[in-house]
Amino acid sequence: MQSVEYGAKRSRLESFARLNQLALGGATALAIAVLPHLAASAPSVYPTGTTLYDPIRAYNSFVLFTGGDNIAHLIDLNGNSVHEWQDAAGHSTAIDPALNGGRKGHVFLTLEMAEGKGTGLIPGQINRRIAKTIGEVDWQGRPVWTFGAKAPGGAAQQHHDWARLPNGNTVVLANLVHPVKGFKQPQVLDDVVYEVDPTGVVVWRWVASDHLSEFGFSAAELKLVRGARTADYLHVNNLKPVGPNHWFKEGDIRFHPDNLIFDARNANFIAIIDRKTGKVVWRLGPHYPAASAEGQSPRQVPRPVDQISAQHDAHIIPEGLPGAGNLLVFDNQGLAGYPTADLPRTGGSRVLEINPVNEEIVWQYTGESSGGPAWSFRSTHISAARRLPNGNTFIDEGQSGRLFQVTREGDIVWEYVNPYFKTATDPVTGRPTYNNQLYRGQPVPYDWVPDATPHSEESVKAPVTALFRVSQTKP
Question: Are 143 and 111 in contact (CB under 8 A)?
Fold first, then answer.
């Protein structure tokens, strides 16, 4: 039987939780979050921090993410916070020094939030706030580039993503609130892409509603899109440069490195924008065969891409990494589509690696890959996945605040549960709420930091779950 010893320890979970030292039969210490005063539908006690770590089989690195405390945390794989950026708002993104004049330790953050146009457009969303100013900050948190004051309307309205370009400019995914002819909603929460120069001036713009005919909708589907009950009819959640790849070198100009790839969560498609014309030149979806089509095993690879729904973080795997040139995407299998996609009722989420030319799944990760049922790996919203240099895949199961690494065979070799919870008040019941969901985690190599930063690579062995118990000793 595993035993648990408690020792008082202050944490950032000031409103409801306590991090305690966990001694498991002399094994490496873990942290556990105890929520003693709040009843919740989720389990009330579960480990947080690093819960499993095999330094030999894992790709050892730092990881960057923003917790519910609005702090951007850079951690090592033992869960030690090695650096922080305060007031990071919803998410943070490390900037590659190769695109940044060699400057290390710089991140994109939201610098200023504000109430703004767009509030009330999304049913069920209360007090929507917008990003007024975004920026690049250095290792010390000092802004070195900002965008907002020169944005249309004086506010960036950035959401979900941003990326530095090789030419020094920055692409920003933002919202544009405006009327669109033919839509049921008087004002649409449209998706817009800005290319912004180092002085904060917009030098190129692309607006999604200008390209509705290029997204692959039938006439009947387009009628559903225009009649959507939500103003956020596409909900684009991802934007990245395609980047150098072998498809372009072999003559397929759709995959020009300067082109941009994005995905529309609410509409179930992924697309590439030609930077010169603004036209959509490649697209996956919105039409797919049914998930697990008849006569085809859902574990069989390669196989044609089947039903993707409510996906996130679609990108072309960069050169130099295993699978380079393929598409990697977190397929949430959440409710989405026009009409709503038919999905397995008890299915889980998937990470898919796809050949973007013949549209075949060449590798996948599901709950079954690690020996569990499909539904044991599930995040119906947010989330991400990245390929690592040793062939492992980094996965952000965002809904549960879980980050982990899997091998090609599906073995989990590192796992971390976000201990930085967000607290709020339910607008209907007035009760306190809390969750540790994590929008996007990002693996960061050790040499990304400006100076040698200490890090740990100590093995962590998880307890046998069926034998795990919490026993309290009297003080």
Answer: yes
